[in-house]
Amino acid sequence: MAWETEHKRLDAETVLAGVRAGIADPSRARYLVAMQDAPVAGNEVVSVPVGTLMLTREWSDWRNGDWWWIQSVYVAPAHRRAGVYRALYRHVEAQARATPGVIGLRLYVERENENAQRTYRALGMDDAGYRIFEAGF
């Protein structure tokens, strides 16, 4: 995903440790995986992952509540433009609206990723007008 969207090569051990830490501690992250039934030999059907996203939280003192951040979005190429992300987003949106103290959803997107921006706008999200600055360590 990082290579496809940002041309960044990530260290596999670090990523695996990070995902394990997120799964082990729900206060750090929650992962959602979209599954789809796929036929295999005979009449057998197996569920296969076709998309995923991660949720994190950011406390806002201005609004006295949590923003849920959608991160690490990925939909397998063969399943893009088929409603996979929409289903994940609508599920997260419904959970956020039903959770007291959640004030909204946020995500960041590469400036050049116009396809993703169109998708997010079609789901009712707007450009918040911020730029992200960071100091990596």
Automatic annotation (TrEMBL):
Stated name of the protein: GNAT family N-acetyltransferase
Domain of life of the source: Bacteria
One Gene Ontology MF term: acyltransferase activity, transferring groups other than amino-acyl groups
Limits of the N-acetyltransferase domain: 1-137
PROSITE patterns according to UniProt: GNAT (PS51186)
Signal sequence extent: none
One Pfam family recorded for the sequence: Acetyltransf_1
Lineage, top ranks: Bacteria, Pseudomonadati, Pseudomonadota, Gammaproteobacteria, Lysobacterales
UniProt entry keywords in alphabetical sequence: Acyltransferase, Transferase
